[in-house]
Amino acid sequence: MCCVGHAVAGYPAQYVMEKCFAAAGLDCRYLTLDVAPENLGDAVRGMQAMGFRGGHFTAPHKAAVIQHLPQLTDEARLAGLANFVYRDQEGQYVGDNTDGKSLCQCLQHVLDPSGRNVLLLGAGEMARAIAVALALAGAREVNIVNRSVEHGQQLADLLNEQAQVAAMFFPWSGDCEVPAETDIVVNATSVESADPQARVALEIQSLSPQMVVADIVFNPPRTRLLQEAAEQGCSTIDGLQLLVQQGVIAFKTWTGVEPDANVMREALEEYLEL
Length: 274
Description:
By secondary structure, the chain is an alpha/beta fold. Helix content is 38%, strand content 18%.
């Protein structure tokens, strides 16, 4: 297994996965490989030739790797992004996207996304993957708030036309007010990753206790948004939970063994010095 990316130094997957391999008694390795965009096709063919069970793909390869994979899951195909690859029973690589799938699985422990109304903040690659996964999980409506009108409308059009879920785009100007009928709020921006005290432009008072608020930022895991949402009585899902769930999906798919999620979380916290 490996992580293929460009300038992926500091990516915690290798440290975490190898801790879990050891805890499960598996003789496996996870390599971090820095691959330039022009060499991506050769890298995928090399993985296949050397018998890698699969890998993760980080920016800027999530979209570009699609053309080098013979099969795609619905999540990867609709989003046009693959961050995860595994072998099928015939030994062929399948491209998947677990960025949104991990959120949907975490939500199952709090609030089933099926039939729910979602407010999605952001329209970048992560937001696209999350929106598609929520649509496939049966969300009733996905409303997108984004500063770029072009990207926001493109994502809404994708959901309406290809994912068969009602979606509307709203330009993000000033503090976004959460509609009262919203069930799930997802911050898919990276506003807080550079500055833990940075404020997501959201009208906190518009949150209500029946809502679930999720944030993709994993360092720090308890972002300002999640702290303020918890004060409003909301259930919360932090970025570290999402990262652990992505690891669980990958580990089990590659090895057939259910990993110890506690070992994974502890390894992440140790690596990130939390």
